[in-house]
Amino acid sequence: MARVMLDDMIAELEGQLGVAPGADPTLETKAVPTAAPPAPTGAAPVPPAEGKKKKDKKKAKGDGGKNKGGGGGKGAVDENQPLITRLDIRVGQIVEVWEVEGSDKLFGEKIDVGEEEPRTICSGLRQFYTLEQMQGRRILVFCNLKPRKMGAVKSNGMVLCAEAEVNGARHVEFVDPPADAAVGERLTFEGLSGEPWVPNQIQKKKVLEGVFPGLRVNTGGEATWEGSRFMTTAGVCTAPTLTDCEMH
């Protein structure tokens, strides 16, 4: 009787505890493991370090600068190119002129050659022209020579003149472009072609010294180099009065 009562009490207690009849209450229920989330199939791209970004940007900027080219750079040259075509000779116009202080020969000129600002150039022409004759004059200008000091002024180019002895006296005059030639136009040379060299190469290869012996005004008053006429889109360049003489 006591045994029956004890069994009933155990069954009632198991029911209160939620334990199945006859189960061992000391056993723990094992948790069912859950599946781990799948690993990502590919890693997200890692942005470059800030320092590397700046370095790459600086390098790109530096490389771009090399492509700009400059008047003083090395530049590519063609050794077989006719000498005269290596020079950048343009139509210019004197917009301002003055007598260089400390010299009795030099004019200082501001010359428009089609660039943002006029070039400052010195010419030893005071024996042959007055200030009034120089002002506004259209001329030919060598534009790819290295600047050099003349008196107290840095001259950035050279003007082209014809020279001859007339009645026993030295006579020098500008070589004129055609009246309709545009300021800044680069001259071409009849039958010849080639792009101008940079100033460093002009100086290094002594191009100007090689060109001078072939510069002449022909018997028709036309400017030539070894027989090739100096041309613009408006026609040939000429000396106003001189013929069959040298130019420089």
Automatic annotation (TrEMBL):
One Gene Ontology molecular-function label: tRNA binding
Biased composition (Pro residues): 35-48
Location of the TRNA-binding domain: 83-188
Chain spans, region Disordered: 16-79
Pfam families: tRNA_bind (PF01588)
Keywords assigned: RNA-binding, tRNA-binding
Classification via SUPFAM superfamilies: Nucleic acid-binding proteins (SSF50249)
InterPro entries from the UniProt entry: NA-bd_OB-fold, tRNA-bd_dom, Tyrosine-tRNA_ligase_regulator
Name of this protein: tRNA-binding domain-containing protein
Species in which this protein is naturally found: Phaeomonas parva
